[in-house]
Design goal:
Blueprint: E1 6-8, E2 11-13, E3 17-19, E4 41-43, E5 60-63, E6 66-69, H1 78-90, E7 95-100, H2 105-115, E8 122-126, H3 143-156, E9 161-164, H4 172-181, E10 186-189, E11 193-196, E12 198-199, E13 204-205, E14 211-215, H5 220-233, E15 238-241, H6 247-256, E16 260-263, H7 266-269, H8 273-287
Parallel strand pairs: 3-16, 4-7, 7-8, 8-9, 9-10, 10-15, 15-16
Antiparallel strand pairs: 1-2, 5-6, 6-14, 11-14, 12-13
Length: 301
């Protein structure tokens, strides 16, 4: 028997495949296509302390091998989330990872504190939101701010904390070390790359926000490189993401040093992607006579 189980900060997942925040709702939309019981975990859409309307439209556009989004973390807020989404996910045998967003340290801590007694397994802190109090710098782009917010969030968190790193930095390892120093339990990377598209016929930006987060196959080589660099720089488990559409893609991240992976944009063009990837990893392990997935995590040095 092959073993696909992985452990993230003491939480055991039946396999390393999870959904990426913002691409899977909170599971309900995809549950008709995907048996959520077959996934290692479901990562919810970002949840804030109050409902957020998000950015004006248009806010999604396709690009060559990818897409740009400027949704602006639209979400119904923590109250509705606890009442509606957690009970839905509890019906399934999968781990629940809640993605938390905020505009200030206080916002994040408020949500994390609310979730302390909820039956969720891990919290993913999305630090790519601009921090209002720092004059618009994203927490995720300043190592001191990242270390400080990690420390604060850890004071309120009962569940292990995943810090989600932004790739829009000069040196990703500096950010990883800052999160580790702040007490992060796990790191996830990468979040989207900042991109832009111009509509030449309308002679204006394709997105109302001008810029958006670029995701999809185009970002994968950058993401694999960053996961590898971070795996060499820190001792924390890593959740790798960025352009994963097949089991082969996922295995690249695992061999680069990721303990688990998240599938995002692929869900939009193939709603079955997550389960196909989980099954594909098993098939690869059988073919390659790999008995335990731990044998190939970070095997590329």
């Amino acid at each position: 028997m092959i073993n696909t189980k992985v452990t993230l900060a003491g939480v055991e997942l039946k396999n390393p495949v999870m959904t990426a925040s913002g691409t899977f709702g909170s599971g309900a939309e995809y549950s008709e296509f995907v048996d959520l019981n077959k996934l290692g975990g479901v990562v919810t859409k970002g949840v804030a302390n109050v409902p957020w309307p998000g950015n004006p439209t248009p806010r999604v556009t396709e690009t060559a091998s990818g897409m740009l989004n400027a949704i602006g973390l639209q979400n119904p807020g923590i109250d509705l989330f606890c009442k509606r989404d957690i009970p839905f996910l509890k019906q399934y045998d999968t781990k629940i990872i809640v993605n938390v967003c905020g505009k200030s340290t206080e916002d994040y801590c408020e949500v994390v504190e609310r979730l302390a007694d909820e039956p969720v397994d891990l919290l993913e802190i999305n630090v790519s939101c601009p921090n209002v109090k720092e004059g618009g710098i994203a927490f995720g782009q300043n190592p001191h701010a990242l270390e400080a917010i990690t420390k604060e969030v850890k004071k309120y968190a009962k569940q292990p904390i995943i810090m989600k790193l932004s790739p829009n930095v000069t040196d990703i390892t500096e950010m990883a070390k800052a999160a580790e120093a702040g007490g992060a339990d796990i790191l996830s990377l990468i979040n989207t790359l900042t991109g832009m598209k111009i509509d030449i016929y309308r002679r204006t930006f394709a997105l109302a926000n001008k810029t958006g987060g670029m995701s999809g196959p185009a970002v994968k080589p950058v993401a694999v490189r960053m996961v590898y660099q971070v795996a060499q720089a820190v001792g924390l488990p890593i959740i790798g993401m960025g352009g994963i559409a097949t089991a082969e893609d996922a295995l690249e991240f695992i061999m680069a040093g990721a303990t688990a992976v998240s599938v995002g944009t692929a869900n939009f063009f193939n709603p079955y992607a997550t389960v196909e990837i989980a099954e594909g990893i098993e098939k690869f392990m059988v073919q390659q006579k790999v008995e335990d997935i731990s044998q190939i995590i970070g095997i590329v040095k």
